[in-house]
Amino acid sequence: MIMWASKASPSLRSDELMDIREIIMTRKSVRTFDKRKITLEDKEKLCSFMENIENPYGIPVKFLWLDSDENNLSSPVIKGEDDYIAAKVPKVEHCEEAYGYSFEKLVLYAWSLGIGTTWIGGTMKRAHSF
Ligand SMILES: Cc1cc2nc3c(=O)[nH]c(=O)nc-3n(C[C@H](O)[C@H](O)[C@H](O)COP(=O)(O)O)c2cc1C
User: Fold this and answer.
1) Ligand 1: which atom is nearest the Cα of residue 31?
2) Ligand 1, atom 15: closest residue by C-alpha
3) What mean pLDDT do residues 58-82 have?
4) Pocket around ligand 1: residues whose beta carbon is below 6 Å from it?
5) Is the pLDDT of residue 123 over 90?
6) Which of 34, 41, 92, 104 is 20 to 30 Å from 58 by CA-CA measure?
7) What is the tens place of the pLDDT at every residue in 13-55?
8) Domain 2-128 falls in which CATH fold?
9) Whose CA is closest to atom 16 on ligand 1?
10) Beta bridge partners of 79
């Protein structure tokens, strides 16, 4: 499963100003991106966040940031993307729930930073395995 991330509307407010309810209520998928790059600061925040996401099942979900050019990634349903985030879970009971819970936390955190995302399902070549 892969998720695309890039800057969304500049009118989005920063994480300090948005509470979780507001983040959930306002978040929507973004499929057309404006080519503004994610800043290094925001990338560091997201990478640090995704290393520490917990879920109620205690199942580890491992995330990987993927540059679309370096990894030759694209999707017919989104435009203007620079980055993808992939994740994997061990194949155990409730792994799907753990995966969805953890990834949704990341999606919501990205939104709080003003970064739009959309969930897309995908398969990756073994060369990308992590
Ligand atoms: C796990 C998951 C996988 C998805 N995979 C795709 C996909 O491969 N292609 C696609 O067009 N939409 C996919 N979607 C739907 C979009 O990410 C999105 O949820 C949908 O466009 C509705 O937008 P909204 O979240 O703003 O309501 C997927 C959604 C989820 C939750």
Assistant:
1) 21
2) 119
3) 93
4) 1, 28-29, 77, 118-121
5) no
6) 41
7) 554 556 888 999 999 999 999 989 999 999 999 999 999 999 9
8) NADH Oxidase (3.40.109)
9) 119
10) 32
